[in-house]
Amino acid sequence: MKPVVVVGTGIVGASIAHHLTRTGVPVTVVGRDGGATASSFGWIGGGDRGHWPGGAADLSGLVVDDWRRLEQEVPGLGLRRTGSLRWPVTDDTGTDLVDSNTIAHLEPALRAVPDRASHDPRDAGVDAPRAARTLLLAARDAGAHVYYGTTVTHIHTDGVSTSAGLLPASTVVLAAGAGTAALTRHLTDPARIADTSSALLIRVRAETGLVRGIIATPQLEVREVRDRELLITAPLGDTWTWTDLRTAARHARHELATTFGDGRRMLRGWRVGTRPMPARGPLIGRLTPHVYAAVMHSGVCLAPSVGRLAAAEITSGTAAPELSGCR
């Protein structure tokens, strides 16, 4: 029996591979790198349904439960269940509103406490690269073959050509994030998944507990990823320069000081990631009888749900109603 070949070693490809191996089918995973996963802020949840375009809105209600299930299946994914605070408040946040006293209790280091904020205690942060590696290790332990640092050059009806040679396949799953568009240009409308967005991820050394949960304001998104280390994300334009990066990093550090006060902070590192941002929402499903696509934002949030549903569709041939808006 030819294996299912999953193209992509980021969080989405890793989740699909893990769920496929649990069904007993042979699986091969191939990828050049972790893609946008390595540059992910790692916010699981995110609240407001207005931020879930297209079929993602149908999947948003599955996020928390599927991550909890996956964490039980595969220990060591690196979740930090801290909850989140978001302000200013809009009318459609879909989460609990808390007053300034509660906010000050949740985040005692805040310099200026807002009158109210949207609070979701279910939200969590995850070390996305660690989670992807852990899922791939689980898939490999279950019999999957994993090829790292490998580029896919062509898709055939019976396999894929790669820098490691021809890999036979019964089905090819394309979960290569922003790199999927180039592989599907002859299979679907390129505009469907061509849109991307760049983001700057900044790691800052700071005192442990300065930020206790996930904080999201128009000026700053920040969370603690481990003791003495904060993660800040900042959007970039479609085109950016080194000057833009320096400006964004300075602005992020300024906003951190404005929000949480001055202190001994040290820039530990940064990186830029390019994320797929399909304007009509996720594209998940068969493009041909032998090619299945899984392209979305946010891949980190949706990976456990998409992995479970995609594996079921691929192995059973039955369409999952939860994915009907993702075609």
TrEMBL record:
Keywords: Oxidoreductase. This is FAD dependent oxidoreductase domain-containing protein. Residues 4-312 form the FAD dependent oxidoreductase domain. It comes from the Bacteria. The keyword Oxidoreductase applies. The keyword Iron does not apply. GO terms for molecular function: oxidoreductase activity. GO terms for cellular component: cytoplasm. It holds the Pfam family DAO.
